[in-house]
Protein: Ser/Thr protein kinase RdoA (MazF antagonist)
Organism: Cellulomonas iranensis
Amino acid sequence: MPSDPAPSSDPAPSSDPAPSSVAALRAVLRERTGPDADVDPAPLHDSSPVHAARLGDGTRVVVRPALDDGPGQRALTAWARALVAAGVGALAPVDGLPVPLAVPGPDGVEHRVVYPFVDGRPVHLPADLALLGDLLGRLHAASAPLADDPALADLPRFAWPEHDAASVAEDVDAIAGVVARLGLPDEVAARWADELEGFWDAQLPRVRDAALPAWPVALDVRAVNVVVGDDGPVMVDLENGEVAPRLLDLAYTALFAGHEAGPAALPDAREWAVLRDAYLAVAPPLTPAERARWEDALVYMRLEWGTWMLTEGTDDAEWADPARRGYLTDLLLLEPGRWAL
C-alpha cells in the first residue's frame, strides 16, 4: 500500500465539493475535536479512501480505513504503540480518539483510524537502501519479544496457501501473456510455469515446514511506505502487518523495496549487500534454518506476491511507465543467487 504523500497545504476548506463520506468524516472530527477540524476532499490514493485532515486544534493527521471493526485493529494499534515506545520509526494512532473511529456511511458504519501526519522526504533508491535495511532490522528486533504478547493475540496470522490447480493454470497463462507482451524469450514463461506448477511440492513445504521464527512483521517495508522525517525513517503503513516468518518479510523487502518507487530494476548484488548488511547489524541473528531456506523464501515470495504484481496488480498505464516496466521485467528475469545471505 503506497504511503501518504505530503500535501502541499492544509486540508481544503469545507466549502469545497466533497463526497458524502468526507462530509461524514468531517462532522465526526468536528464533534470530537472541535469546529475547526477539516478534511481534504481529494483522497491521497486513487484506490483507497485515505485523506489528509486537520483536527480541531490544528494538528495535521491522516485518516485511513481500519483493519476491521475492533479486535484486529486494536491489536495492530498495540503493536504500533509498542514499536513507538521502543524508539522504532512507526506510527501509532493519535491519542484521544477511539480506535477504530466510527463514521456513518451509506451502507452502515465505516471504521477509520487517525494517524499523525509525518513531515519529511521520500525514500530514494538505491541511495537509501541502508536506511531501509536498518529500519526493517529495528522493526524485527522490537517485534520479536512480542510474539506471544496477549495484547497482540488478534493480530492476523499468516495463512499458507492451499493448492488450487485451476488458479495455478490461470497464473501460468497470465505470466505467459506478460512475457509475450514484453517480447521476452519463451524460456522465461516456461521457467515460471515450472516453478508455479512445482511450488506445492517444492518451495511451499520447504518454507512452511521449516519452523522458521515468526513474530509481528510489516510485509510492506518498501520505499513508498517510508517517510524520512527529522528523527529518521518512519514506516507509515503497518496495515499489512501480521504474525509471519520474518524471513518472508526480509524476502519481501529484497524483492519489492522499489516497487512503485521509481527504480527501473531490482537491487543488484552490490546494492542488496548494502541493504542486507544494514539489516543484519541490528536485527535478531538469523538461525541456521533461516539461512538454509533463504532462496526458497525468495522464490516463495516471488511466486506468491510477484505473480500478482506482474498480472492483476499492474494496469496498462503502469506498464507504459518505463521505470515500472523495467522493474517488473527484472522481476521476471531474476535468477537464484543474486542476493546472497
In short: DSSP finds twelve helices and ten strands in the chain. The chain has two domains: 20-117, 122-333.
